[in-house]
Amino acid sequence: MKQFPTDFLWGGAVAANQVEGAWQEGGKGVSTSDVQPHGIFGEVNQRHDNTFSLKDKAIDFYHRYPEDIALMSEMGFGILRISIAWTRIFPKGDELTPCEAGLAYYDKLFDELEKHGIQAMVTLSHYEMPWHLVTEYGGWVNREVITCFERYAKVVFKRYGEKVKWWLTFNEINMSLHAPLTGVGLQAGCTESHVYQAIHHQLVASALAVRACHLLIPNAKIGNMLLGGLVYPLTCKPNDVFETLQENRKWLFFGDVQCRGTYPGYMLRYFRDKKIDVVITDEDKQTLKHTVDFISFSYYMTGCVTADKTLNKQIRGNILDMVPNPHLRASEWGWQIDPVGLRTLLNVLWDRYQKPLFIVENGLGAKDQPDAQGEISDDYRIDYLNDHLVQVREALQDGVEVLGYTSWGPIDLISASKAEISKRYGFIYVDRHDDGSGTLARSRKKSFYWYQEVIRTHGASLKES
C-alpha cells in the first residue's frame, strides 16, 4: 500500500493563544496563557506593568485568518485543528451569558473554513483557561469549575453544531502532571493530592462535554487528546522494564479513564501508596462512563527509563524529563527523533483501546533562515515529516484505524514552552521575530510544496525511509 485511504484527513493544527493575538479585543478576558508572557516555564505576571509578550499579537491570525486559510487550502487541507479561546466566550469563566463578539468571531472563522472546503476540528481548552477561575476559585481543584466548563461547552456546541463535526475536550490533558498551572490552573505550592483532585474534576468535565456533544450534535464526533509520552526501557533489566511500565501508565491513565470510563486499579493503588486523597463521588463514577468516540494525540519524541539512579541523568524535552536514547539523534532543541516510535505508539493505543486514532500534532521545530532570495529550503523538516508519515502508513497496514494527520504548526506560531517564534514549525513562514520585529508577511517554504504533493497523491509521493 503506497497510498493512504482516500478518506484520510490531511491538515494542520494550531492553538488560539499561539496564533490569534488580539488578546484584549472583542471582549476577551484574561487567560492563564496571558499571565505567562514568557511561556509555560516563565513566571506568572499579572500584566499590570505592560510586560511585553509575543503572544499578545502572536501572528495576528485573529485578523489575518482569511489569508492563512487560503494558503492552507492551497496545500489541499481537508481539516484544520484550532482551539476556541474560552475567554472570548466567557471572559471570566463564571458568567451566565456568553460574549456575543467572541461567538461571532468564530462564526466567521468557521464560515471561512467552509468556503475553502476545510473541516474544523475544535479543542475546547488548549493550554488556557480564564484567569479569574484561578484567582477566585483556585482552578480545577474547585468542583465549581466543572459547572463553568460544562456551560461553556454547551454554548459552543449549540452555536457551532452545524459547522463543526470534530471536537476535542482538553489539549494534552496529561500535561497537568508537569505544568499544573497550564493544565489545571494550580499555582506554586500545590500538593500532588491537589493536582490529582483537579485532574479528576477535569476528567469529569471532559465526560460531561462528551455527553453534551452526543446529545446536542449527535452526528458529531468528540475525542480526548493525549500527549503521547511513550518511553522505552533503557536496558532489558527487569527493573527497567517494570519502571517503564509504570512511567507509561502515568499518561495512559488519562486514556484509560476517558476511553474505558473508570479508574484503573493501578491508579487506585498509586493513590493508596502515596496517600493521595481524591474525592470521587458515585455521580462522578456514572458520569465517567460517557467515553470518547476517538483518541487524538500529539507525538514528537520518545525517551528512555531506568531504575538505576546513577544513570538517571535527565534531559528536558516537550516539558517531559526523559533519559536520552543512545540510539537516536536529536533536533537542535534536544528533542530526540524517532519515527518508528510513532508506529509503535499507534499500535499500543489501538491494541489497548480499539478506538479510532487521530494524530493531531507532529512536527519539527527549527530555526529557519531565509536565503538571499528570501526562500527557505527546510529539507530537515521534509525529512522528519516524511519519515514519520511512512511509519503512519506502516501502522495502517498493521490494521490500526487512523482517521487523519494534522501537523503541528502549519504556519509559524508562538511556542508554548518559552513564548518564542524562533522555534518554527510551519510550512508557511511568518516574518516576525522574538523581539517583536517583522512585517508579519507570509511566504511559502519548500515544505509547503512538499506537503501539498503528499496530500495530492494521498501519500504516494512519500519516500521510503
Strand content: 5-15%
Instruction: Count up the domains.
Output: 1
Class by SSE composition: alpha/beta
The CATH topology corresponds to TIM Barrel
CATH architecture name: Alpha-Beta Barrel
**Describe the biggest sheet?**
8 strands, parallel, barrel
Q: How many DSSP E strands?
A: 14
Label the overall shape: globular
Q: Strand order of the main beta sheet, please?
A: 1-2-3-4-5-7-11-12
SSE order, one letter for each helix or strand: EHHEHHEHHEHHEEHHHEEEEHEHEEEH
Look at the structure and name the CATH superfamily.
Glycosidases
Regions with little confidence, pLDDT below 50 for 5+ residues:
none
CATH hierarchy, class: Alpha Beta
State the helicity in percent bands. 25-40%
CA radius of gyration? 21 Å
Q: How many helical stretches?
A: 14
Pfam families: Glyco_hydro_1 (PF00232)
Enzyme class: hydrolase
EC number: 3.2.1.86
Keywords: Glycosidase, Hydrolase
Short description:
This protein is an alpha/beta fold and 465 residues long. The protein has helices at 16-19, 61-75, 86-89, 100-115, 131-135, 144-160, 180-184, 192-216, 238-260, 265-273, 282-287, 339-353, 379-398, 446-456; strands spanning 9-13, 79-83, 119-125, 166-170, 221-227, 231-233, 294-298, 303-305, 315-317, 320-322, 357-361, 402-408, 428-430, 442-444. α2 (61-75) packs parallel to α4 (100-115), α6 (144-160) packs parallel to α8 (192-216) and α12 packs parallel to α13 (379-398).
Question: Helix and strand layout, with pairings?
Answer:
Layout: E1 9-13, H1 16-19, H2 61-75, E2 79-83, H3 86-89, H4 100-115, E3 119-125, H5 131-135, H6 144-160, E4 166-170, H7 180-184, H8 192-216, E5 221-227, E6 231-233, H9 238-260, H10 265-273, H11 282-287, E7 294-298, E8 303-305, E9 315-317, E10 320-322, H12 339-353, E11 357-361, H13 379-398, E12 402-408, E13 428-430, E14 442-444, H14 446-456
